[in-house]
Amino acid sequence: MNPTDITVHQKSRTFDIAFEDGSAFSLPFEYLRVYSPSAEVRGHGTGQEVLQVGKRDVGITSVAPVGNYAIQPQFTDGHNTGLYTWDYLYKLGAEQAQLWQQYLDRLHAAGFEGDTGRDPGAVLPGTDGHTHHRGCSH
Length: 138
Fold this sequence. Notes:
Elements: E1 3-9, E2 14-19, E3 24-28, H1 29-34, H2 39-42, E4 60-66, E5 70-75, E6 84-85, H3 86-94, H4 96-109, E7 130-134
Antiparallel strand pairs: 1-2, 1-7, 2-3, 4-5, 5-6
């Protein structure tokens, strides 16, 4: 499934994406960063995931299209190896509450419960300082 609209909100640090089926998600940059599909974050197998800490204020400096199936964001902490496919972004949106809670639980278990205070479901997208791509097909 392809996206129909993508907006990057720099001020509120959210990435909005809408899909052909009418679904629309607002994904905080922090959430995207800690769930990067890169090997650096995911490891090389189940149980090999690397807990990402200190990403509360991470930004996105650019978003490059990768073919017709993904994007590759450049984060302000230097991370740029994650290829976010449309299917993966859809999954991150559809399962946001559950995945965010899993992340908070992992932070708590590792003693980093104060590392983030952001609740992705409560973040409202801003209206200024954003990049907008209407009818995005890349």
